[in-house]
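I am writing to request your help with a piece of structural work I have in hand. A protein sequence and the structure tokens that stand for its backbone fold form the material at issue. Please examine both parts with care and let me know of anything in them that strikes you as inconsistent. The record follows directly beneath this note.
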Amino acid sequence: MTIRHKAFWTIAGSAIAIALAPAALHAQAAPVPEGFTALFDGKTLNGWHGNTKVWRVEDGAITGGTESPIDANTFLIYERPYGDFEVRFKYRWQTPEGNSGFQFRSGQMEGDYVLTGLQANVTPIDVPPDRYGMLYNETGDRQEMVMLGQRAEITRRSANGMGTGRVVRTVKEMVNDRAAILKTIKPYPEWNEVVLIAYGNHMVSAINGMLAFDALDNDPVGKRDGLFGLQAHKGPVMKVQFKDIVVKPLTAAPDLEGRFKSTVSPAPEPRQTYKDSTRAAMPDVALPQ
């Protein structure tokens, strides 16, 4: 707040300040970077479809909000698929609880705007640190794929008999300390910025300029293209906002050298685990040597 604004507050009183508050909270649209296309016009949900009881435009931002708990996940879905891309978006939370995410390479299922596929997790900061900003897979047995701060590979063991085999996560190293990433997260009404890049089997995400995960998806079940979507997770009343959503299709592998802040450290043991927690509510189990 400037000295001039402080004086104005003193002279004009709280009524004027309250009148100015909505303008301060309105999401000012950033210029679209060269080579990118805006997926949100700042005014309407043109190009998106979803449950209008949950999704709307408010304060110049896509707003997902519930007035009472919902019993199933629902998504705001963009109209066309993408394969290899760089996406940038900003988000902020108005509630201390909630669960959302940016869905990509996803397919639509039957139900109330339901998606299955990959997701960059978007939550309030008060969640288990490893789950914040993780690479997730909505539905199926992959789910918690690469956790916050990990550089990891996802593979699948051959099935013995029926089924698709067991999902395996191999953590190569830590790309950043989780606490250091979380220190960059800004509280409401400020915005947090995500850069999400997917090219072939390689996916990276950065939050506020810090590398959040670096993933190789070598699971044959993994998809290489699909829909974008924003998630409103079942559970308590929540309110999340998104703005400045832009995308650039990629035709060649991007140069990521030095682009995001990263302080590499060894991964804790066990580095290679079966992903049993996704199916049996059990901790990940180290592979037998």
Summary: The first strand starts at residue 37 and ends at 38. Confidence is low (pLDDT under 50) at residues 1-21. DSSP finds four helices and 19 strands in the chain. The two ends are 60 Å apart (CA to CA).
